[in-house]
Structure formats: C-alpha cells, structure tokens
Amino acid sequence: MKITKPSHNLVLFATALALCVVILGAFTRLQDAGLGCPDWPTCYGFAVWPKTAEQITQAESLFPDSPYEHAKAWPEVVHRYFASALGFVIILINLVAWRHRRNREQPFKLPLLLLGLVIAQGMFGMWTVTLKLWPQVVTTHLLGGFATLSLLWLLVLRLNQRAWPQPINIMKWRKLKPLAMLGLILVITQIALGGWTSSNYAALACPDLPTCQGRWLPPMDFADGFNITQEIGPNYLGGQLDGAARVAIHMMHRIGAIVVTLYLLFLLSRLYKYAEGYHMRRQAHVIAGLLAVQIGLGFSNVIWSLPLSVAVAHNACGALLLLSLVTLNYRLSKSTSW
User: Fold this and answer.
1) Do 138 and 82 share a structural domain?
2) Which of 136, 161, 186 is the last residue of a domain?
3) Which residue among the candidates 69, 76, 105, 231 is catalytic per the annotation?
4) Is there a single domain that holds both residue 171 and residue 153?
5) Exposure winner among 138, 300, 305, 334, fewest CB in 10 A?
6) Where among 111, 135, 161 does a domain terminate?
C-alpha cells in the first residue's frame, strides 16, 4: 500500500518552510538582529514588535539596557513565527505518521526524531536570546536548523516511493557510497565552520584574496579562536575575540572551502565516470552547479565586504548543496540495496 499523497505534500511543504526558516535565520544573524528582541518568547513584552510611539516608550522602560531598533526587532519576530509554524507542521506530520503507523511504508521513527529536534531547536532559540548570542549556542542552533531541513528532505525522498533505476555494474556504485558519505560529512563540517565564523563575527577578518591582510600566513590564534569554553560579557553582539583569533577562524573556513571543493570535484569525477544514464548525470550536474555558485558567493563575500544579500544567498546555497548530497547518498543506498 502506498503512502497517501497528502502526507508527502505535507512533508514537502514542511521542507520548503524549513528552508525559509534557515534563510530567515541567516538574515537575522547577518543583520545583527539576534538580540533584536531582548526577551523570549515575546518581543519587548509584545506578541509582535512594538509599533506605536507609546509601545516603544513602554518597551524601552521595560528594557532600559536594550534600546528598541525596528530594523532589528522585526526580523527576529518573523523568524520566530516561521520557526513556530514549522514546529506546528512537524506535529501534524507526526499525527499523520501515527495514523498510518500500521503501513510498513510509512516512516515513523524519522518523524519522531524531527519532533524531538524541533523541540530542541526551540530551546536553543530561547538560549540564543537569554545567553546573549553565545557562539556555542548560536552555532548549534544553526546546525540544528540544517539538520531539520536535511531530515525533512530525507523524509520527502522516502515518501516519494520513486523507483530508482538499478545500476548495471552494482559493485562500482557500491564503491561510490563511502565516497558520497565522506562528501556529506565534509559539507556538514564546512557548514559548522561557517556557523562558527559568523557567530564569532570573523567573516571580515580577512578582507582580501587570496591572501589575508596582505599575508599568506597572518598572525593566528587558534587556541582562542576555537575555545568552546570561552566566557562572554553582558552580550556577544559584535564579538569579543581579538583579531588573531578571528583570523584563525576565518582561515580555517577558507581551508575548509578548499578541501570541500577539491573533494567534491573528485567525487563528481567518479560520478561522471560511473554514471549510467540521465538521472545520475543530472544529479552530478546539480551538485556541480551548486558548488560553482557557492564558490562564487564565497569570493563575493570577501571582495564586496559581506553584502547582506550575498551572505544570505551563501547560506541558502550551502543548504541546497547539503540537500543535494543527502539526495545522492539516499539514491546510492536505494540503488545498491538489492
């Protein structure tokens, strides 16, 4: 028995919504609006951001240490409501999974995992505000968002019930599985490095290419840059690391980008070599295209000093590249499982 179409469409909608949440989260973070609302779950005590002069006066009297800024409050509130909507949709997905629990084709553990993950994301969203943008929390929150998006997309693939073409030489495709898995791990690691770079305000630590501050090896402090037990002051807005620590973080992100690029090019060469038909070649084309765009956006961030639109697009393209690797790994697993 096949899964009902509404279940598939609901998960597909949740995936699109999760991508919006990831993009809105990037916009909020890059707009320095992570503390646009100093309280949680309200914003200056309001269900939405203060709008009238009277409400703004009331808000600032409640939070005298956090002057109200409309440009930073509304992105934070919009991001919260989109994230809440995603949580509600994931609850619906679990209800549908429970209803079809006797259907062997219906994933049940994966929706439960998503429910637990989205609850944890809500907690990290709260701690992002209450712990004043502590980098460890911000980075974990970002990774949780990417994990939620990836698992939703995996659920879409499982519910799609698509019959993938079986390879002619199954042994060669099986050799691709560990290569594709390593590619996925490297992309996830690079996303984590990107999150650490952003949460520590290190994206502009190196304003030039291919050197950094005019040097191939500028002064770098890896001990402080990657100290996960670092303490924070009243808040972490703007960052507190010195220049050498931020340079170390930025340079590691650059090195990670080089490693990921070279490895994915190697993986693509294997895919093109063993591709048997249009579908696998199309998958390789998608990965290659997203990789090219991501590299271009990374260069643009440095050349034009992190313009907001480019930086947000860099996050969105990273999410799509991650999903393309999830798709590749899922397809290789299904095509070589017989």
Assistant:
1) yes
2) 161
3) 76
4) no
5) 305
6) 161
Distance CA 173, CA 123 (A): 41
Q: How confident is the model at residue 3 (pLDDT cuts 50, 70, 90)?
A: very low
- Same-domain check for residues 194 and 128: no
Prior bond of 41 cis (ω within 30°): yes
Residue 4's pLDDT is what?
45
Buried b / exposed e over 140-169, threshold 16 CB at 10 Å, is bbbbbbbbbbbbbbbbbbbbeeeebeebee
Question: Does residue 71 sit in the same domain as residue 106?
Answer: yes
Q: How far apart are alpha carbons 289 and 283 in whole angstroms?
A: 10
For the chain, the C-alpha Rg in angstroms (whole number) is 22
Nearest to 7 by CA among 119, 82, 106, 109: 106
- pLDDT of 338 strictly over 60: no
- Is the pTM here over 0.85, yes or no? yes
The pLDDT value recorded for residue 164 is 59
Bridge partners (DSSP) listed for residue 46 = 43
Residue type, 136: Q
Listed range (208-222, 275-289, 299-313) with the worst mean pLDDT: 275-289
| C-alpha pair distances (Å), 316 with each of 59, 119, 148, 192, 240 | 33, 23, 14, 14, 27
Name the H helices within 234-306. Answer: 243-274, 278-303
**Residues whose CB falls within 8 Å of the CB of residue 234, separated by 6 or more in sequence, listed in order:** 65, 132
192 and 104 inside one domain: no
**Could you confirm whether 76 is annotated as catalytic?**
yes
Asked if 184 and 155 sit in the same domain, the reply is: no
Number of domains composing the chain: 2
215 forms beta bridges with: 212
| Residue range of the domain that includes 270 | 166-338
Q: Is the pLDDT of residue 136 over 60?
A: yes
The model's confidence at residue 1, banded by pLDDT at 50, 70 and 90, is very low
